[in-house]
Design brief:
Blueprint (H helix, E strand, L loop, with lengths): L1 E3 L5 E3 L4 E4 L4 H5 L6 E3 L2 E15 L2 E5 L3 E5 L4 E18 L1 H7 L3 H10 L4 E3 L2 H20 L2 H25 L9 H16 L6 H8 L3 H12 L3 H19 L4 H7 L5 H12 L3 H6 L1
Parallel strand pairs: 2-4
Antiparallel strand pairs: 1-2, 3-8, 4-8, 5-6, 5-7, 5-8, 7-9
Helix pairs in contact: 3-5, 6-8, 7-8
């Protein structure tokens, strides 16, 4: 995995798809002090050890036999790693995803995993998943990059279809979401995609086809947070990430988050963090 520092600090992959098991405690500890944003898409399976993390403002617990789906744009931060980790990962690069477009299988996976990136498997299912991933590792090591590129589109579709089937087969699909829950999930997805373009709650309400007041009431009811809280949390997480993991100027970071000027960005950041962007960078 690599960090692209020419734009927003996002983790990406060097090839169309990459698979392996070389995620360990030392590697995860690199992301323990500040949030980072995924440019790629990652599927992770934990077979040993435990991880506590934040994914798009939500705390998650990863335990043995858990599968984690992290969509492009996901912001995450590692809080704690316990035990000896054994983790498989499969990822698709941003370049491949952009060329492929959002397929129906990917859209299904996005909807199903939104707000619940972790799903536990029974031991039998985990064993089958491990064998499948081991087979893919063998293919990855056996074939050259050209053949791996040819494999990528079908693998991409198959993985998303499989993830969707796993989610639908669990109890999640037996619990009907209320209209308010659906609105809240749609709002959270829009914020994840557009927080660096607009912080205007009315814009999100218009996109969802509801009034500003109704959106605020629903989000407060479901999450306990205001719409502004949700949006600002994403903005601040991204700002912290850029301040700590890039050499971009404060002005460039302000521009990337669509602030009118650096002064407004500085006041906004201090309001939520308690210190200025420069002071945070020096910590």
């Amino acid at each position: 995995m690599e960090t692209n520092e020419k734009e927003l600090p996002k983790i990406d992959l060097p090839e169309d798809w990459v698979i392996g098991t070389d995620i360990n405690k030392d590697l995860l500890s690199l992301y323990a002090h500040y949030p980072v944003r995924l440019k790629c898409e990652m599927f992770v399976m934990c077979l040993a050890g435990e991880v506590e993390a934040m994914v798009n403002l939500n705390e998650i617990q990863v335990r043995p036999n858990d599968v984690i789906t992290l969509m492009p744009g996901t912001i995450f931060q590692i809080n704690e790693v316990r035990g000896d980790l054994k983790i498989y990962f499969l990822g698709f690069s941003s370049g491949f995803i952009e060329r492929s477009g959002q397929s129906r299988s990917m859209l299904d996976a996005i909807f199903l995993t939104l707000g619940r990136p972790v799903i536990p498997l029974k031991s039998e299912g985990a064993l089958m998943m491990e064998k499948y991933l081991q087979m893919l590792i063998g293919m990855y090591e056996q074939f050259n990059e050209k053949i791996r590129q040819e494999i990528a589109p079908n693998l991409y579709a198959d993985v998303h279809t499989g993830i969707s089937i796993i989610y639908k087969s669990r109890h999640y699909d037996k619990i009907s979401l209320s209209k308010s829950e659906l609105i809240c999930r749609s709002f959270m997805q829009l914020v994840t995609q557009h927080y660096n373009q607009t912080r205007n709650v009315s814009w999100y309400a218009q996109k969802l086809g509801i009034t500003h007041a109704h959106l605020c009431a629903v989000v407060k009811q479901i999450t306990g947070k205001t719409c502004i809280d949700v949006i600002s949390s994403m903005v601040i997480m991204d700002a912290k990430s850029q301040l700590k993991s890039t050499n971009l100027t404060i002005q460039a970071i302000s521009d990337s988050l669509n602030f009118a000027n650096i002064s407004f960005f500085g006041k906004y950041f201090k309001r939520y963090v308690g210190i200025s962007p420069l002071e945070y960078r020096k910590l």
